[in-house]
Write a structure and sequence with these properties.
The protein is an all-beta fold. It is globular, with a radius of gyration of 14 Å. The termini are far apart.
């Protein structure tokens, strides 16, 4: 099993910066890829940024150049640094990991709310 707990959400003005973190615990060595998703009210959950086990990063077009995903292996933490925030970035941000435990499974955190005011 893998457990994910997000932190760091909050309220920020447009143009500002915020960082959210995801504490990872459990069978960490079974994790393959990790990522951040977000879901705004009335919309589907969408991928924001991904980090593969090989260290490759991928970003949704709407955050490229503004957001940075990184992993702190020493502290078992996944980060998402968000700069130049826009009101349309307002959403609940979720940490995700896929891992192998007899078969491939998905782990999700409980989410952390990011609100960007105009």
């Amino acid at each position: 099993q893998v457990q994910l707990v997000e932190s760091g959400g909050g309220l920020v003005q447009a143009g500002g910066s915020l960082s959210v973190s995801c504490a990872v615990s459990g069978n960490i060595f079974s994790i393959n890829n990790m990522g951040w998703y977000r879901q705004a009210p009335g919309t589907q959950r969408e991928l924001v940024a991904a980090l593969t086990s090989a260290g490759r990063t991928d970003y949704a077009d709407f955050v490229k150049g503004r957001f940075t995903i990184s992993r702190d292996n020493a502290n078992n933490t996944l980060h998402l640094q968000m700069n130049s925030l826009k009101p349309e970035d307002t959403a609940v941000y979720y940490c995700h990991a896929d891992y192998y435990s007899g078969y491939w499974q998905d782990a999700w955190g409980q989410g952390t709310l990011v609100t960007v005011s105009s």
